[in-house]
């Protein structure tokens, strides 16, 4: 086999590809090609992925030109079936020999644990990589994550968009192939307007530079994205502001252009009287514009668009975009003015016609439940329950406004504006805005006790209701976003340090739904479901699963207390005594389970026979005295640190004392001593669950 290698370039030229999937398609194509080459014995070197609206391309360096030769093992019949009683070859042996092109005498024996078999070892010469590539490319394209493929013209080829050209180069040589109805070559295309004529690619390494310098195309997605970001930031700075560079919008714009040119536009300042969230939403979602904010993060009457052309008259592009955005802003202005003609409370009746879930009632039913539950939670937080009730009552009213009907993502946000316009208290208005928080990973938490009360009420009502009707999430299906709701409950309770009993809150939520569904079984199910989210929650904070498991074994119902326990166990396992005491707790747990009811008695100090058990009791009594106040105050970290001092008497006890002795009275007393010791540690966690 030769060691000759060459770079490989594959470019698929298409009509404009879906911007939302462009990056994923390009990455998937590169991965599929590289993986299939490696599986064929010709692994590539460095990988360069390119993606623009009209092309998917991959450049792989140093691809071997030939597969390595292979030694193939072919197994034939078992030896017992290969020869008859006289030692002559059977038809099975003769047939196998013919199939491998050998005489029976030339076949070898293969010894296995299941017997001896005839076999042949054949030499297979490696194929040229150029011969492999058409089938590899065809198979790779068939595996791309395309939700719906389309046909075009009179052919039978199917792809996400019609294909117009194919570049297939290995070194400076074109690999002849026909893929998706297009014959391969070395001609690519530049920018549709700036360079519509073909461009000849001489070698894979020249591809990207050729497109950029002659074709007016920046093929590298990341470079194009960075160029857009820099242009937009620079232009916003020149306008005296800063651009809102939403990552998803930046990716989408990058997928829409090949030669980005940022252009600033403006709109009538009168539209700034409309809540800026509405203006920002219409600019981003409808027009793919980047809004510009001032130093106080207030929207300016400016925006930045990214054109896909370097125009000789940019003023024409700016004017055109300003003309297009005006009716969008007028719509938002109209919705804002119309919606304020009636207060939120007047919209409650309209919620009767909006079903939340047919078994759980309408949004009016849900609002009524949220009002009662939010009031109860607010009272437990030391806040005004009447404001909690009002926030719950008005929480869903903005869903029937024109603005939220047009821009559903503004639910809650517009409710806050309308509530303030109606003269509702600030805390009530803010709670309406915060009820859905946290809406995603890293999202801000609700601010203030009324907001916290409503956000918890909304999530707990949904969790109890959906579990009660048997629609618990399964696999990837979670239509009611229950995982997000459960994690939101976790974050609010822990990160806002709310000393609330979660099980009690679930009972309150269940009570509100009891007239519709049987909620009793759902309480414990939802409690466990929320607790299951804690492993992932703490993993993101560097705390391993066994620490969380050790705390969950004690089933604390207040997540603030649970968090203190988790932090305490995490600190404890760094102590020198941790491993020994964790092992001892595991051993104690096994002994107590084995003993059953026999371990239920109290320790009789006068019946202690060995010095080690008397020393352990003395140390245990002292530790109980020292940590009682700490546990009462929820100070688990210093409590566990104090209990770490029990290592020596515990180790000595297990070294010198036989717990499961034949003397029943002595055995019961020793088990009682261990049960008392275990109970002390269990005030924080089951340390026996910690992994070595």
Tell me about this structure.
- 48% of the residues lie in helices and 15% in strands.
- The chain is built from 25 helices and 20 strands.
- The strands form 6 sheets. Strands 1, 2, 3, 9, 10, 11 and 12 form a 7-stranded mixed sheet that branches.
- A hairpin with an 8-residue loop joins strand 13 (187-189) and strand 14.
- Helix 21 packs across helix 25 and helix 22 runs parallel beside helix 25 (664-681).
- It starts with a strand and ends in an 11-residue tail after the last helix.
- The relative contact order is 0.05.
- The mean pLDDT is 94.
What's the arrangement of secondary structure elements?
Layout lengths: L4 E10 L7 H18 L7 E6 L2 E10 L5 E9 H4 L8 H10 L7 E5 L2 E10 L4 H14 L7 E2 L6 E2 L3 E8 L2 E2 L3 E2 L2 E4 L1 E3 L8 E3 L6 H7 L7 H18 L3 E2 L3 H8 L6 E6 L9 H12 L2 E4 L5 E9 L6 H26 L15 E3 L3 E2 H18 L4 H10 L7 H5 L6 H9 L4 H9 L14 H20 L13 H14 L6 H12 L6 H20 L5 H8 L6 H14 L5 H18 L15 H22 L3 H8 L3 H10 L7 H18 L11
Parallel strand pairs: 9-12
Antiparallel strand pairs: 1-3, 1-9, 2-3, 4-6, 5-6, 7-8, 9-10, 11-12, 13-14, 15-17, 16-18, 17-18, 19-20
The count of helical stretches stands at 25
Distance between the termini: 51 Å
Radius of gyration using CA atoms only? 36 Å
Shape estimate: flat
How many E strands? Answer: 20
Quick take:
The protein is built from 25 helices and 20 strands. It is of the alpha+beta class and 692 residues long. Strands 1, 2, 3, 9, 10, 11 and 12 form a seven-stranded mixed β-sheet that branches. Strands 15-17-18-16 form a four-stranded antiparallel β-sheet, with helices on both faces. Strands 4-6-5 form a three-stranded antiparallel β-sheet.
């Amino acid at each position: 086999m030769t060691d000759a290698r060459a770079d490989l370039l594959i470019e698929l030229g298409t009509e404009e590809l879906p911007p939302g999937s462009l990056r994923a398609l390009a990455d998937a194509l590169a991965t599929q090609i590289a993986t299939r080459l490696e599986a064929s014995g010709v692994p590539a070197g460095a990988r360069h992925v390119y993606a623009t609206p009209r092309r998917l391309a991959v450049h792989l360096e140093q691809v071997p030109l030939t597969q390595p030769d292979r030694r193939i093992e072919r197994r034939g019949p078992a030896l017992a079936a290969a020869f008859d009683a006289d030692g002559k070859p059977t038809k099975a042996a003769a047939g196998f020999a013919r199939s491998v092109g050998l005489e029976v005498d030339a076949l070898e024996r293969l010894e296995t644990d299941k017997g001896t078999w005839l076999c042949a070892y054949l030499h297979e010469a490696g194929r040229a990589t150029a011969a492999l590539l058409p089938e590899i490319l065809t198979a790779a394209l068939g595996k791309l994550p395309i939700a719906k493929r389309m046909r075009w013209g009179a052919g039978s080829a199917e792809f996400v968009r019609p294909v117009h050209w194919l570049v297939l180069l290995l070194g400076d040589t074109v690999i002849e192939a026909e893929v998706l109805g297009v014959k391969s070559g070395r001609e690519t295309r530049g920018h549709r307007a700036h360079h519509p004529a073909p461009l000849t690619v001489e070698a894979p390494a020249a591809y990207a530079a050729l497109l950029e310098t002659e074709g007016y195309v920046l093929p590298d997605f990341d470079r194009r994205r960075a160029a857009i970001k820099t242009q937009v930031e620079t232009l916003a700075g020149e306008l005296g502001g800063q651009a809102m560079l939403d990552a998803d919008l930046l990716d989408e714009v990058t997928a829409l252009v090949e030669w980005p040119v940022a252009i600033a536009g403006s709109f009538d300042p009168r539209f700034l009287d409309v809540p800026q969230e509405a203006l920002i939403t219409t600019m981003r979602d409808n027009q793919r514009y980047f809004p510009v904010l001032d130093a106080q993060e207030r929207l300016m009457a400016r925006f930045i668009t990214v054109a896909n052309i370097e125009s000789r008259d940019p003023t024409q592009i700016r004017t055109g975009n300003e003309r297009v955005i005006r009716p969008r802003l007028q719509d938002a202005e109209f919705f804002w003015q119309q919606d304020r003609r009636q207060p939120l409370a007047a919209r409650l009746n309209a919620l009767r016609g909006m079903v939340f879930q047919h078994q759980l009632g309408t949004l009016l039913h849900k609002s009524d439940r949220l009002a009662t539950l939010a009031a109860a939670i607010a009272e437990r937080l030391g806040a005004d329950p009447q404001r909690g009730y009002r926030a719950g009552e008005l929480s869903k009213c903005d869903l029937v406004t024109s603005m939220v009907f047009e821009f559903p993502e503004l639910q809650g946000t517009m409710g806050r504006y309308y509530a303030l316009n109606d003269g509702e208290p600030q805390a009530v208005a803010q709670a309406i805005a915060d009820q859905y928080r946290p809406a995603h990973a890293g999202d801000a938490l609700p601010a203030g006790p009324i907001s916290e009360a409503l956000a918890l009420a909304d999530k707990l009502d949904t969790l109890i209701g959906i579990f009660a009707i048997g629609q618990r999430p399964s696999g990837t299906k979670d239509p009611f976003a229950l995982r997000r709701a459960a994690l939101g409950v976790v974050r609010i309770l822990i990160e806002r340090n709310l000393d609330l009993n979660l099980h009690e809150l679930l009972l309150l939520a269940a009570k509100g739904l009891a007239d519709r569904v049987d909620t009793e079984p759902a309480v414990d199910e939802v409690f466990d479901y929320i607790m299951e989210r804690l492993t992932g929650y703490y993993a993101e904070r560097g705390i391993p699963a066994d620490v969380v498991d050790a705390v969950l074994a004690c089933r604390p119902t207040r997540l603030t207390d649970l968090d203190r326990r988790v932090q305490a166990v995490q600190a404890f396992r760094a102590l020198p005594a941790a491993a020994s005491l964790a092992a001892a707790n595991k051993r104690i747990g096994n002994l107590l389970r084995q003993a059953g009811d026999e371990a239920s008695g109290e320790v009789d100090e006068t019946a202690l026979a060995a010095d080690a058990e008397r020393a352990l009791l003395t140390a245990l009594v002292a530790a109980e005295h020292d940590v009682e106040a700490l546990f009462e105050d929820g100070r688990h970290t210093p409590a566990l640190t104090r209990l770490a001092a029990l290592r020596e008497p515990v180790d000595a006890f297990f070294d010198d004392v036989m717990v499961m002795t034949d003397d029943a009275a002595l055995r019961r007393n020793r088990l009682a001593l261990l049960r008392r010791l275990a109970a002390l540690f269990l005030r924080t966690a089951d340390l026996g669950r910690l992994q070595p």
